[in-house]
Amino acid sequence: MALRPVNVNIKALDDTAVGRFWAEALGWGISSEAPGVTNVEPGDGFVWPDAAAVCIDIVTVPEPKSAAKNRVHLDLATTSAAHQAELVARLQALGAKPVDVDQGDVPWTVLADPEGNEFCVLEPREIYQDTGPVAAVVVDCLDPRAMARFWGEATDWALHEVTDDHAVLRSAKGVGPYLEFLRKPDAKTVPDRVHIDLLPYPGDDKAAEVARLRTLGATDLDLGQGDVPWTCLADPEGHEFCVLAQS
Question: Which of 14, 26, 42, 102 has a CA positioned 20 to 30 A from the CA of residue 57?
Answer without folding.
Answer: 102
